[in-house]
Amino acid sequence: MPILPRSFVMKPLIAVVGSTGTGKSKLAVDLASRFNGEIINGDAMQMYCGLPIITNQIPVEERNGIPHHLISCVKLEEQPWWVGRFKNECLRLIDEIHGRGKLPILVGGTHYYTQPVLFKNQLVGDDPTAAEGDGDRDDSESSAKWPILDAPTDVLLQKLREVDPVMADRWHPNEPRKIRRSLEIYFQTGRPASEVYAEQQRLKQGQLRFPTTVFWVHSEKQTLNDRLEKRVDAMVEQGLMGEAKRMSDYVQEKKAQGVPVDQTRGVWVSIGYKELAPYFEALSSGSLSETGLESLKRSCVESVKSATRQYANAQIKFIRTKLCKALVDAGATDRLYLLDSTDVESWTQSITEPSELIVRALLDDTPAPDPKSLSELAHTVLGAIETEPQSESTFMTKCFTCDICHKTMQGEDQWQIHIKGGVHKRTLRRAAKLAARDEYLRRQQEAPKEEDGVST
C-alpha cells in the first residue's frame, strides 16, 4: 500500500482574508499555482453570475487555469444563499479537493460566511443565533406558519420583548431581519434565542476544523483608500453603469409583472447597485435635464467610492474583533499571518516569498516564523491586537435608547460616547431651557386664576 504524503493525510486548509482591494484573489491564485491547489470563493456577491464588474470577480484570464468554485453560480432570480448553506457546500468542496490530493484555498471578504467554515460550531456574523445547518431556510415557509413574522418591525420588536427581552435589548430598531430571525428561533424551538445561543456558548466548541493557515492581506489605510477610489473609476470605465442598469431594468420588469424583488438581500445590496439606483430612477422618469443627470451620476459614483471605503473598514473591523477573538478562543493565534500589500511593486518580497515559506511549513508540519516578524505593519497591527482589552461579547451587547435625543445606540461603548458627546449635552441644555420656559408659562397662566380666587 503506497504511503500518502503527510499533507494529504492531515487535510490542510489555506484561508485568505482581508478587505476589498488588498490583493486576496491574486495571492490565492499564486498559492494555488505553487502548491497544486483549488480555490473556493468566499465572497457572497461574487457568487452571482452575469455581474463580474459590480461584484469584482477575478477575470478568467487572471485565474491561471486554477479551478474556482462557488463563483458566478447564482442567478438573479434565485434565492440568496444563507450562511449555513454556504458552509455546508464549502465543506463538501473542501472534502472533494482533499480527495483529489489537492490543497483547498478559501478566499473572500464575506468573513461571516468564511468563519463558520474555519471553526467548528462557530456562531458568527451579525446574527449569532443562526444555528449551523440553518442556511436553507425559506422566509415564505416561516411566514406561512407564523404570520406575525411579516408584521411591521415595531410589532415584531414588541413581541420579541415579550418572549425574549435579552435579544430585544440587543437589536437596534433598524435591524428588522435580525429581530425577525430571533423571533423565528423562538417559534421554531419554543425557547428564547438568547437561551439557545448561551447554551451553545457554554459548549465552547470553537476549534479549527482543519490544520489551517490564515493569511490576512492588509494595506495601510490611506494607500488602500486611494487604491479603492481608482478601482471604482476603472469599474466605471469597464462597464459598471451597464451592469447596474441591467439590474435596474430587471427590477422594473418584475415590478411591471407584479412580482416584487426583495432588494434588502443578496446582490441587491451590493455596492455599486444601490448607490447608482437614484440615477437610473431619474433616467427612467425623465425628471432631470441632461446636465442634472450628469451631476447626479457623478454624485452616485462618489457614493460608490464612499460605500467601498466604509465596507473595507467594516471588513477590517470584523477580522480584528471576531476572527482574532475566535483564534484566541481556539488557541490558534499563531495561525494568523498579516501580509503587507501596501506597496504592490514589492509583491514578491512582501507577499509571495513569506506566504510560500509559511504554506510549506504547514504542509511539512515544520516550525513557521513568528507572525509579527514578517513586516513592520504586521508587528504594529498584530501587536496592537494582542494588547487590546477583550471587548464585550457580541451576544451580550445591548441597545440603549436616549429619550432626550431620540437615538438608539448599540453597546456600552457607543452609549458612553453618546452621553459624553456635544450633541447630547446641547440637546440636554435645550431641553432644560424648554422645560424652564414651559414652567414659567404654566405659572403665568395660573397667576390670574389665583388672583381671581383672592378677589372673589
UniProtKB/TrEMBL annotation:
Gene3D superfamilies: 1.10.20.140, Classic Zinc Finger, P-loop containing nucleotide triphosphate hydrolases. InterPro entries: Dimethylallyltransferase, IPP_transferase_euk, IPT, P-loop_NTPase, Znf_C2H2_sf, Znf_C2H2_type. Pfam families: IPPT, zf-met. Keywords: ATP-binding, Cytoplasm, Nucleotide-binding, Transferase, tRNA processing. Its EC number is 2.5.1.75. One of its GO terms (cellular component) is mitochondrion. Coiled coil: none annotated. It catalyses: adenosine(37) in tRNA + dimethylallyl diphosphate = N(6)-dimethylallyladenosine(37) in tRNA + diphosphate. GO terms for molecular function: ATP binding; tRNA dimethylallyltransferase activity. Residues 125-145 are annotated as: Disordered. One of its GO terms (biological process) is tRNA modification. Residues 402-424 form the C2H2-type domain. It is an enzyme of class 2 (transferase). NCBIfam families: miaA. Catalyzes the transfer of a dimethylallyl group onto the adenine at position 37. Belongs to the IPP transferase family. This is tRNA dimethylallyltransferase. The lineage of its organism: Eukaryota, Fungi, Dikarya, Ascomycota, Pezizomycotina.
